Structure formats: structure tokens, C-alpha cells
């Protein structure tokens, strides 16, 4: 890390809203593109098929994995006024409340959650399938997590998550995750980032009462790639048959095992800026090369 | 158009939710990428600087252009539960209402609108600037518009909008729009799409009472690129000093003129599939070539 801490909200090309979101331009925008190209290379290790998903998931789908029981505090929803024209006219005449928020007095029922994690889309997509072979997939999503506080690039309400996901037998997924870990190590080295792998748990609501949290403590299935004082810039996750069972995805006659490698794109930007400074000329060249 | 209408929800690689959103994979995903590469080429005509924006705009920013007065029926908002832990626990225990929607009884104030049009971000970004020269910018955004009905790729709640925007003097923007129109004609020809330009108006709420709508009727500032029976796959828009004035962007000492060329990416997919059929082998090759 550079000797003097970098004020991330003063990095050229970053415009930060304290409510938890950022705009990127210039070298920072280009760096995000170069990182995505490296993640593309990593995904090509398994010829992972790219997919583009909508920005939401149906609440009924997330209910299958008790998402709202485990993470109600993180969830964001997409809503709109109900269809009544008089209500529209009333809102049009006085759209803002005294605190500058939208005066949403009459909402249509909320059926959609703003994506909390990119890979959820894939389990929904493949629900009800019997997989004749292991499937490798990749997707990028804007993800949403409400937090107690925000920091530019490091902890945002809305951020960019890139994932590569495997669905298969337990052995297929374990091989995928082992190889992914090696590839991620190479990528961190190419970015000049000193990192370490640490056991981690997901940020459950009231964790001590949640069996899923207790299971993660007993059987560590999440490992985070930590930079500096512990900024998790990526993770490797073994879900066992949690999603295979919830979404009836089968492999060899039993619920499929799934696993994923996930990258927080803005956090990679933060780590590179913290490590190499705010000037783009000092950043590692991530274009074109291949790494271990 | 093909003699037999194509059922868009049966196109390989499209998964459609009747609530207005789609997932893309396979050839359709690749085609969206090829189109974006062509839009990149078009943006390069003016060396337009790319930017990536957050998924929302502050309601206070959109209020400056009376967005909610003009389009309350289209707006979507990002919301979350309020921070009270008891409320979280209550929601966690019973997250769904009887109709399968989320039981959002206690929401934090909604300060963010899900992006209604990609270019709005740019006027917010440049607010308060005096431009020493014309600025050309480009961005892609997932945009949200509530509609009375939806159709796969053609009319979605959430869709992908690519824009190239100019800010400058009236003359600079008029030259930009004239050149953009030629370039778009070339792009439509490269995609093998028979199109025509038609005068259009924005879909105002209660249009006959809205001075902005009446002004668009008197002084047509929006022209849509129409395919087939009238599917607007792009548009060219002259905003005069509407945004320059609202966001205090100046050029040569007076409010800047702005203009944009916008593409609905999913609608281009729809037009190509309707024109050339659902099989990717019959689609035009959009990679690598240059066009008029």
C-alpha cells in the first residue's frame, strides 16, 4: 500500500455520491474494462458461457433460498406508483417530500428485488434442469446491498459483480474452485496486489440464530481474497447442493453442486489505486498479457 | 420483415419474464455485443468519451427538469426497508404478501429513481460547468420505464439504452445530429434493416396539458428511426437549451445546447430477428466492417 492513504473520493475519474454509488470515467473507466478483459480470460479457462440478466430477480425466486430470512437488511426493491391515474396526477403535482425523497404514497406491489448477487440469476435460469455435463457460466451484474455506511469503490449500495459459476458433481465443482483459486492468484500478481485468502462467512441477519451461518462456521465454504487491511476483492464459494436443491437442478441424478468465483470490480479499482497511487501511469498494464 | 411473424419469446437465447424483462445468452448475447461494438465505432466519429454511471439518479436532480410532472407513469424507484431492526425481523419472518409480492410495510425514504434515460446522467455530471469546447460523450445504461403492456425485446420495463451525447453551441449540436443521422443510416443498412425517420414526441403524462409536449408538436426535436410497423429502434433528439438551462451548463456564455442519438439495444435485436429470422446464421455479420 502507498505510504500516504489515497482519498478514494478524490481519484480522477471518480464521482461519488455519499448515498453509496459512483460514476466512472477516464482512466478509472478504462481500468475497469481491462479488469473485465482479464476476468474474461479467466472465464475462458472453462469456456464459460456468458449471459446477460435483467437487473431484478422475482421475490418468489429468492424466497426459495430464504434470502429474506437471511439478508432482509441488505435487500433493495424496484417499485413504481400504482396505475391509478388520479394517483399519478397527485404525484406529478407534488412529487417530493419535505426531506427531498420521492413522495411514494401509493405503490404497486413489489415483485422484484434488485439483484443482490450475480450468480443467483443462473440458478433461477437453470431451475428444473438435469445437467448432462458440468456447466460453466459467467455473468456481470450491478448488485445492490444496503449497508450501515458506504465508502467510495469499497462499500457501495450499487456495485459491479463479475462471476464465473460451475454447476456439476461435487468433484467437478471442487476441481473448478481449486483451479479458479490458482488463476485468481495469478491475476492478483499481475495487478501487483499483495493478497491473502481468508475464511469468511456471509453477512447474515442475526447470525447466531441462523443455521446457514452456523453451518458456514463449522464447514468453511467461503474464502475471500483480502487486500491490505482486509478489503475483500474477490471470493471463492462452495455452495454444496444448496442451490441445486432449492432450484431442482440435478447432476447424475442428485441435486447439483454449485460453486462460484466472484469479483467486486470497484474493489479491484480501490485496491489498485491504494497500492499503486491515483495516477494511471503507475498502474499495472493489465492489457494483453497472460499470467500464471 | 420475414413472411411469418417471429415469436420473439421463442427466439433461442431469450428468456422472457412477462413482467417486462429478459435474459440473453448464446447468439443473441453475442449479437448485442456486436451491436455495441458498432455503436462504439459511431461514438468514435467524435472521439466521444465513455462513462459508466450508477443505476440511479437522485430524485432531486430529476425534479430540476420536472421529470415527475412529465413522466410520473414511467418512473421506477429503488427502495429498501427502513433501518429498524424489529421491522427487519418482522419482514424476515413473513417477507411475502398473499399475491407473492414483497410485504414492504416500512420503507426508508426513496431518494433514487432507477435511470429513465441514459443521457440524464451526463447533464447531472456536467452541471455547473462552463464548456470551453463542445463535449461528446457516450454511455450505456439499463433504463426503466413502466408501460401499460410489455413485449419481449420490444417493450420492456428494463432495457438497455446506448447513447452518444453532444453539449455545445446550437451549431455544434446541429452538426453532430446531422452527422449522427448519416452514420445511423449506414448502421441500419449494415444490419440489413429497412428503416425510415419519423417525427415523434416523448410519451408525456396528460400530454395536452403539458407545455413541453405542445412545444415538441410545434418544433419537432425528436426523430425516431422506425423499423417495420413502427418499432422505434433509435432516436435523434435536439434538446435546445432545456438541459443546459436546468443544470447550468454553459457554452460561450449562454446555456449549452445538447443533443443525443439513442439506441434501444434490445429493439435492434428484435428488428434483426424479425427481419432475418431467429437463426443466427442468417443474421448480418456486424463484426469488423465499416459502413457509410
Main sheet of chain A, how many strands, which sense, barrel?
7 strands, mixed
CATH class of chain A: Alpha Beta
Tell me which oligomeric state these chains represent. homodimer
Q: What is CATH's topology name of chain A?
A: BirA Bifunctional Protein, domain 2
CATH superfamily of chain A: Bira Bifunctional Protein, Domain 2
Query: Helix fraction of chain A?
Result: 25-40%
What is Rg of chain A?
20 Å
How far apart the termini of chain A lie comes to 23 Å
Brief write-up:
The structure is a homodimer of 292-residue chains. Chain A has helices at 26-44, 59-63, 67-70, 85-93, 120-125, 170-190, 211-218, 242-246, 265-276; strands at residues 14-17, 21-25, 49-52, 56-58, 77-79, 112-114, 130-131, 135-144, 158-168, 195-200, 222-227, 231-238, 250-251, 254-255, 257-264.
Amino acid at each position: 500500500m502507498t505510504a500516504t492513504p489515497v482519498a478514494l473520493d478524490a481519484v480522477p475519474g471518480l464521482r461519488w455520491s455519499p448515498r453509496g454509488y459512483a460514476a466512472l470515467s477516464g482512466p478509472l473507466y478504462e481500468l475497469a474494462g481491462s479488469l473485465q478483459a482479464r476476468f474474461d480470460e479467466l472465464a475462458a479457462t472453462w469456456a464459460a458461457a456468458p449471459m446477460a440478466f435483467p437487473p431484478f430477480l422475482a421475490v418468489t425466486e429468492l424466497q426459495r433460498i430464504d434470502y429474506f430470512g437471511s439478508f432482509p437488511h441488505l435487500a433493495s426493491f424496484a417499485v413504481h406508483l400504482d396505475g391509478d391515474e388520479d394517483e399519478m396526477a397527485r404525484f406529478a403535482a407534488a412529487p417530493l417530500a419535505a426531506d427531498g425523497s420521492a413522495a411514494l404514497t401509493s405503490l404497486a406491489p413489489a415483485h422484484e428485488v434488485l439483484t443482490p448477487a450475480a450468480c443467483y440469476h443462473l440458478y433461477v435460469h437453470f431451475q428444473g434442469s438435469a445437467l448432462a455435463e458440468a456447466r460453466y457460466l459467467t455473468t456481470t451484474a450491478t448488485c445492490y446491498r444496503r449497508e450501515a455506511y458506504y465508502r467510495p469503490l469499497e462499500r457501495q449500495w450499487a456495485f459491479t459483480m463479475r462471476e464465473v459459476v460451475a454447476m456439476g458433481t461435487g468433484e467437478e465443482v471442487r476441481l473448478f474452485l481449486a483451479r479458479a483459486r490458482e488463476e485468481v492468484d495469478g491475476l492478483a500478481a499481475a495487478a501487483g496486489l499483495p493478497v491473502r485468502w481468508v475464511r469468511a462467512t456471509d453477512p447474515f441477519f442475526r447470525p447466531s440464530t441462523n443455521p446457514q451461518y452456523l453451518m458456514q462456521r463449522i464447514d468453511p465454504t467461503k474464502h475471500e481474497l483480502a487486500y491490505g487491511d482486509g478489503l475483500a476483492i474477490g471470493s471463492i464459494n462452495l455452495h454444496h447442493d444448496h442451490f441445486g436443491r432449492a432450484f431442482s437442478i440435478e447432476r447424475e441424478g442428485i441435486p447439483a453442486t454449485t460453486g462460484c468465483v466472484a469479483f467486486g470490480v470497484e474493489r479491484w479499482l480501490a485496491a489498485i489505486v491504494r497500492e499503486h497511487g491515483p495516477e494511471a501511469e503507475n498502474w499495472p498494464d493489465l492489457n494483453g498479457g497472460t499470467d500464471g
